[in-house]
Design a protein that fits this description.
elongated, alpha/beta, two-stranded parallel ribbon, 9 strands
């Protein structure tokens, strides 16, 4: 399983007089895209699960995390580690560390070992409490003064943050032509080939405008489950069917998340090919891969499955509908009545688009348009 062999020692930041300026400075440093995260633990509880949710909240994920046993904190901490590695986060600052329980401190130190990030524990009193000293005794630690570490001038990012356009999300349905080809009849077993690039195959999935890509990214970013977010992101950027997406393994994704190989051994569509992954989708796919590497360490595992064994999570199409993402829909019939109509159910066509075999009838599209560039 994935661990950092030589993580940096944790740093205890002494804020002797509990200065509000130091707390404001720590919160101002919070910038996940630049690799810095600040967590303000929920007061009045020593629950390590709550602390994991605090971290996921700081990473922009929706909590509480569903699908796992309500009293088991391990999945939440693994998901947090996966997102920390995927972004990546290089610095984690935890306020009110002198109030944390031994279990909470232990989970933070384990997170440091799994991710290799720098951990800053802010202690708002003169001396370290016994619980904190005991937790750090086995790892060694450094002590720093809050004036040196938590100053308003210390705002330079450790690396250049990724640029992503932020647009207002009105919550309306977004029609994505790439999802028109999600459902189909074919079977695509995985293989061990070196897949050519999509450009070499002459395949270009429907492109997203910058605005639509930003909206899709914002909606996917909120889910705490990497395999769900990565699965739907891969469908959007590749226009692949579910059977093709199921062929992806952890080793089919580049370590930096820039390319993803999907397989089509029977050449039902365009054959096996390697797709470029846009910047907005790379952290999502990397988080899915890191979840497997942190849990099992098996690079041959199916990429879009959950190694933590969640139950009751939505299927891919249901998840897309929850986020109001769907393929283009057929036009609604004209009605003379002015009575308010119930919203129609989303139509997911059984698509033959991009197939090299012309055995799929047009009526299988159920009135939905083909993706741009498709020729019958």
């Amino acid at each position: 399983m994935l661990t950092c062999p030589h993580p940096p020692p944790p740093t205890v930041v002494l804020d002797t007089f509990d200065d509000a300026d130091h707390t404001r400075a720590a919160l101002a440093m919070h910038h996940p895209a630049a690799g810095r995260v600040t967590v303000h633990p929920t007061p009045g509880t020593d629950s390590t699960l709550t602390l994991a949710h605090n971290l996921l909240d700081a990473l922009g994920k929706t909590t509480p995390v569903t699908g796992y046993r309500a009293t088991d904190p391990a999945p939440a901490w693994t998901l947090a580690a996966a997102w920390v590695l995927a972004l990546p986060v290089t610095r984690l600052t935890v306020l009110r560390a002198h109030l944390l329980s031994s279990r909470g401190l232990g989970d933070l130190l384990s997170l440091r070992v799994r991710t290799g990030m720098r951990l800053y524990l802010v202690c708002h009193q003169r001396r370290l409490p016994a619980v904190l000293e005991q937790a750090l005794a086995r790892t060694g630690y450094e002590i720093a003064d809050a004036d040196a570490v938590l100053s308003q001038d210390d705002q330079a990012p450790p690396h250049t943050p990724r640029t992503r356009q932020t647009v207002p999300d009105t919550g309306e349905w977004i029609s994505l032509p790439a999802l028109t080809t999600l459902t189909s009849y074919e079977s695509s077993p995985a293989c061990a080939c070196t897949a050519p690039t999509a450009a070499e195959r002459g395949f270009r999935p429907p492109a997203l405008t910058t605005r639509i890509a930003a909206q899709v990214a914002q909606r996917l970013d909120r889910t705490p489950h990497p395999h769900l977010a990565a699965h739907l992101a891969a469908a959007v950027i590749t226009a692949a069917s579910t059977s093709q997406l199921d062929t992806a393994r952890v080793l089919d994704l580049a370590l930096d998340g820039t390319i993803l190989a999907l397989h089509d051994r029977h050449n039902v569509r365009h054959g096996c090919m390697t797709h470029p992954v846009p910047a907005w989708a790379q952290p999502l796919l990397r988080a899915a891969a890191f979840t497997h590497l942190l849990t099992t360490g098996v690079r041959g595992s199916p990429l879009f499955t959950d190694p933590l064994g969640a139950h009751g999570l939505p299927y891919l199409r249901d998840f897309a509908e929850q986020l109001k993402l769907r393929p283009p829909q057929p036009p609604l019939p004209r009605r003379k009545t002015r009575r308010r109509q119930q919203p129609a159910a989303t139509i997911w066509p059984v698509s033959g688009a991009h197939h090299t075999w012309r055995w799929t009838a047009e009526e299988n599209m159920q009135g939905c348009p083909q993706p741009p560039g498709h020729r019958t």
